[in-house]
Design goal:
Pfam family, one (chains A, B, C, D, E, F): Creatininase
Number of strands of chain A: 6
Radius of gyration of chain A: 19 Å
InterPro entries (chains A, B, C, D, E, F): Creatininase-like_sf, Creatininase/forma_Hydrolase
Structural class of chain A: alpha/beta
Keywords (chains A, B, C, D, E, F): Hydrolase, Metal-binding, Zinc
GO molecular function (chains A, B, C, D, E, F): hydrolase activity; metal ion binding
CATH architecture of chain A: 3-Layer(aba) Sandwich
Oligomer: homohexamer
Cofactor (chains A, B, C, D, E, F): Zn(2+)
Strand content of chain A: 5-15%
Largest interface: C-D, 54 and 54 residues
Shape of chain A: globular
Order of helices and strands of chain A: HEHEHEHEHHHHEEHH
């Protein structure tokens, strides 16, 4: 069920019967020469809407702009400051409680949002309002992702390429996959991301000239479809698992 | 040109040549028994994307959740607190300046956002960063809108109904238009919105039982199309007018 | 009853019997070549104190500095940033609740404060503390004001001129009324305040060279007296109407 | 020169020639059974306006509500939270710099404001904007004050009583001076304000049943007049001393 | 009992039986040519740990960096902005309540922290969470301190010198005591800290070339020991006095 | 060189010649039945002081209280809210720039601080003030740590046990190592920390009854010494590497 498509009287029954909401969040940021800047929010929205359709759980509209200052040197990257992102997400999530929502899945497709969603989740949980957890599709099927590609990459790599080839093929520049690989950072061993244990880099451009990592050339729409379905299964299961929990079990434990 | 669909190298030329961005903003909130909760962001996105396509100016992704606490008594209304909304919009708009953007049109379709976009606009202009103005489609064609309907209404009335009938007909419950009219506040004269000059109401529900105003029954997709095109023309003209201004003319005048 | 003139034991009975406070707020900002910068706070204080005297309701001291950045190009304009204004007003209003106040009339004479007082009002109402409404004198007698002058104006025009001629005649430069009219923006038709529906101006100086609008030459102290009395009647009525409301009726309605 | 009484063109010369502003700040809070709640802002305004008249320096309108939570148990006390007070004062003071003001005297008559005005003063000075100092009348003539009364008191005592007897005699309940003394804390030795060196009290009511300290019975309007004139002389001298300083001398010294 | 040295199960009994915590706070800032920059936090920690050991009350780790912008012109001075200091102290103190703490002694050895600890104390008390008071060793034995030295000084003077000679003798440059005296401000009469009653200085360097005041040459470790023991006795007594208070007595009194 | 032990004149040469500061940060939180609550700040301080002594670089005092809400169910855990922690660290770090510091190593021994130090580091770097990186000892010698113990653990496990056995043996309850292991979570496989890819736990107590993980029984002071020395070597190398970088190289790269 997609909240934005419904008229309010048609939502009454849902809020009477359920207390779970699925919230897609992504970013708008460079994803190399071959992928659209909307990659992360397209993926998040794809998963969230698919799981909502399969389960009947409520999906909200998508948050399209996230925490991406580390990609700003590349044209078009949009971002908000971290405190602003946290407060924005906290505010609308907290307000969902007014309708009876007490558990939320942040379907997130941008690594840069993770820690902030966790921080918001703690705020909401620690004051007893809402239990919110963050889900990234690739974390739910790590082995499948590893097997699918020779050289993975956390940003703009083959796994994101395959997903967009599956979800929005017209937005992928298939003729630039080799350029994406050759102009970026194929293997992490090439990178000097740490010095004596300290993470020394702050921006994507510190490590990769074209903004992406991994080898994109073995991505295909078919692989994308397979990964999408497998991870969607996980999200469906997660939604049902979460909906079935007693609320008290989700809240903080008492002091010893 | 839609930012989220582009790969970063394909945006270089735009930022070299232009400094204007079009930003759609709406809300997700009840729009009566006949319209979807996404009405405002659907309309904002519709105008922004159309004008961008016609002019070649850059359109960003849509902000789907705005300042709607006054609709919260109806199922599904989402909102953020005003300070949070302002900071979120300010943050990503300000960051667009990093790519060279120095003028922005907030294509807004939610009345509750207006004053906040103006406040953000002042912050950005007063420190010399960006000149941002707020545009609502109906403000650009007031006479056309007045003529089109017998009983207009600022929220969920015939003009928004007609636009959604045009843009997303499958989301309108045409069989509920009479119920929308009869269950809401048809004419403002019926309302007691002020007492001795003071605005006394805070929430939509204070005035209207089903959340909407006006007479929706004479809305048609054809009227929606006509209004959409007329207002799109205005937005196109506004974009071109704004792009042609010297930056200094847009900045605050000096002290007398 | 004026709070600042009373010793604390003499206020006990008021707080026992009543729960209404009248709070005057204005600005200190340019009002053209003919009017004092204190125009708005003088007017607000005038109405608030008069109504308090007539009704016995409690009036607090005046907030003299408001949200006036749009007048800053003219010598002497003082202002605070909007978030600071909101927090200041919220803080002392909220603290009035400690003495039992649960309803407040913001007697405001500065247009630039309106939206901020509304936002503060919502904060106080939504958490169940205080019901606060904003009142501007001219909104309470729109027809009288329209009839009184040939060319009105929202700032420094004949209606504010007439009121200061009535309240503080020694502060009006009567010999500059023609200069005020001729050096300002007499009729709004002359202005290009909007482009294709978008409000494009931010500062008073964008539209008016001397900071004021309308035709001040037909303002007189007698007209000022008449308007003052008529609007004071409205404020008296509003105070009594508000005092008579059950508190629950003033608080937000429940979720549908 | 009183800013609020002037039309903007008449301020041009001042800002051309001078860069000093005098800002009166007080509080609205209980001052015992004999004095009005406005005591502190009446005194501050009295001194600031008198000094401005004598010297020609610019005086702004008065800030009537300050940091007085420690008096809240007594009817009518108004207050704002400290961070809000600081931000409000900082905001309008900082904005005075837009007109060329670079030095400010906070004419303050409320002890509870002192540390906050100092903190604001540091913010403004450390970033090189404005040099602002806080002045309390009794600090400028400590010996005179000590000699004038047998039992002084920091709040609602004879020195404040005498000043209001001089400035606004109609607001003093002269028939309650004995009651004020007998119902309050006459001598500090009676108080147990510290335990083993730690200040243990937070609120006025912790030490004094009627909110005041000292022996008010030897206050007279004549003593008030004498103190007012002596302290006004000091403020006049301070204004002239400050106006004569080179700006660089007022700014922070360099790092050693 | 020192919290940081204990394993959590060994703290259970304390929280069962007691509700008092001792929190040492100081600064890291210049203390002249003869004393270490850690002087204030060394002293605070010294007193807090000694009192905790003697009484069995719980002592927390030390806050080493406080509000010291007024010493920044001297190499090495560290400081945080006042709002940040207040929020940091408020946050960890408030969280102590989660374990049952309802009264706190801030053992503070830096004058620049005092007003901020008072402000935090009010926040915690006014919402009924914790009663926190600020204690500075020299305030508890003012007569002893006065008698001990010919020329005292509030910063880097003989009393702080003597304490560090007692607590950490290896950190005192005894061969620089004369230089400290001669390069600083020996007697306050030399200073022009006020003009006509207004405090005009903001930074230590405005008054003293080497950052310190008073005559350090008659400081000895033996005097330090004596003062330390006398003030420790006071802190012990304060702790026991505070622990014995009923909680309700420590909370704000009711409205009259 | 330890800043807090130095008198300010003795720091002049350092700031003339160097621009690096080492800042130790930890936490005060439960570390199981066998380790002191100060474990993390003891370790951080140990490394920072050792490296400063070996290299001559400047070490500041330690931040003893960090972001530890996830341990709050266990007696004695202290914590500050994340925004407060970030602002506190940002404030004093930023102020170090006043003395010429332009690069900082946060020697951190608490996992819960990492993301916040990174966020602060970005703030400082993005505005061109300071390049700050976060270093955790175990990240610098991952292979050594892995080899040293059969069952490691991120919190209160054998590696932290060994370090405290080395640094402060008197604070380790060696007789509780078995109890620590048996009452906690020995192996991560036992945990259900994720559901379908989503991290579902928020608090330590969700996974471990006594607050710790891993098998502590093969920790020894000798292993602690070996690890301490190896990681100290890394920190020394990191300090020298960082000091040798040209400042421009550490700042953000330009827009492509």
């Amino acid at each position: 069920m997609y909240l934005a498509d419904e008229a309010w009287p048609d939502l009454e029954r849902y809020f009477d019967e359920e207390s779970l909401a699925i919230v897609p969040l992504g970013s708008t940021e460079q994803h190399g020469p071959h992928l659209p800047e909307g990659t992360d929010h397209i993926i998040a929205e794809g998963f969230a809407r698919a799981a909502a359709e399969r389960t009947g759980f409520l999906c909200t509209p998508t948050i399209n702009i996230g925490v991406s200052p580390h990609h700003r040197q590349f044209h078009g990257t949009m971002w908000v400051e971290p405190p602003v992102f946290r407060d924005y997400v906290e505010s609308f999530t907290r307000n969902l409680a007014y309708h009876g929502i007490d558990r939320v899945i942040f379907v997130n497709a941008h690594g840069g949002n993770v820690q902030h969603l966790r921080e918001v989740g703690r705020r909401l949980r620690d004051d007893g309002t809402i239990y919110a957890i963050e889900w990234m599709w690739n974390e739910s099927i790590p082995d499948l992702v590893d097997e699918a590609f020779a050289q993975n990459g956390p940003h703009g790599g083959p796994k994101e390429t395959a997903l967009i080839q599956h979800l929005r093929p017209e937005l992928v520049h298939d003729d630039r996959l080799e350029a994406a690989r050759d102009g970026g950072l194929t293997s992490f061993d090439e990178a000097t991301m740490r010095q004596h244990g300290a993470r020394t880099f702050y921006d994507a451009i510190d490590n990769t000239d074209n903004g992406v990592l991994g080898d994109q050339t073995d991505a295909t729409a078919e692989t994308g479809r397979r990964l999408f379905e497998a991870a969607s299964d996980q999200l469906v299961d997660l939604s049902e698992w979460l909906a079935a929990r007693p609320f008290a079990e989700l809240m903080p434990k008492d002091h010893v």
